[in-house]
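We examine the record.

___
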Amino acid sequence: MKATQRVQGHYKAQYENLRDYDEELLRSNPGSTVKIDVEPNCNPSSLTRQFRRIYVCLGAMRAGFKLIGRPILGVDGCFLKGPFPGQILTAVGVDGNNGIYPVAYAVVEAETTASWTWFLKCLGGDLDLESNNNFTFISDRQKGLIPALSKVYPSAEHRYCLRHIHENMKPKWSGDENKNLLWNCASASTIPEFEKSMKAVLDKDKALHDWLKQIPSKHWSRAFFTGRARCDILLNNICEVFNRQLIQGRDKPIITCLEYIREYLTRKIVVVHKKIAKCKGPLTPGATELLQTIKNEAAEYTVIWTGGSKYQVSTHFNDHQDQRVVSLDERTCSCRRWDLTCIPCRHAVACIWDMGLHGRGDGVPEKWVHPVYWLETWKEVEFYIHTFKHARSKNTCTT
């Protein structure tokens, strides 16, 4: 125990050094935000206060997130495993390669409406979020989070992680058949498709249908998502991936735990920077792979130009007809997948090719992809935070 304390620090004593850690972190990482909240003290003359919460948002990560251009954050919490109870709250974004991008983290007393409200307000101050903003959050519906979000950002889009919904569904409706019915409803990108999938649930099990109807569909089905986030994710994997990286730090004393998170972020910056150095092409590797799959599907479609920038696109596959309307000027398709992801869907790609074949354009789908997926954008984000980290390498935080 003594050896462990020498290496990792003393659990109780580190709370006494939190303000020093706060000052050192701000000194070595200019532009960062560190906020410490304490319990109300009944004795105003006392020189000590009892720790309650600490919030950290590193300046480089905050600025990089704003450069990404995808206004979506996954929020989640996980338990501390030391002798003092508590929770680590995290906010994680999605970069142009569809990888995780941690933005902020906090240690709080418990997952309550009060602690989530405090965390969301701190986050809003760093990201310039007004109370009436239409930002997008995705979560596992943690205790206290839903009322906190409704209070702090009543106009925000709040998606519920589909895996969490499935876990709640499994005790009564298990099996792959019920799981597939749920996924069909959630992955439907238009309201008619969603209603058709819900009708299939009703035909299979009315009780399951009624249970799903109790969860507002705008929170878990793509058919009701807006395209503002430029992301159609249904799972809160971004937070789960990040939380798994923190497992070995969650049983450490408070400062050692916070440093474990900061050091992980530093290592991640280096890993991503090395990966970018190997990349070629106009798009990020994740976007390139996704667009290639879309291209393979687009080859099966027939295109009819209806004038201007509008096209009718159709195909017959296994006795199933898929017919859509595409507007290239508006960058929309009636399937709504282009609207949701800002990457041309298979119908749009078929139109772009047809336009190129008839001399109305160059027929390159990559040029129609939103800049958030461009390799240059990804490089700009990671170069900024890598340069920031390198410039501060001599000022590494030590406490």
In short: Confidence is low (pLDDT under 50) at residues 392-399. The longest strand covers residues 100-108. The CA atoms of residues 154 and 221 lie 19 Å apart.
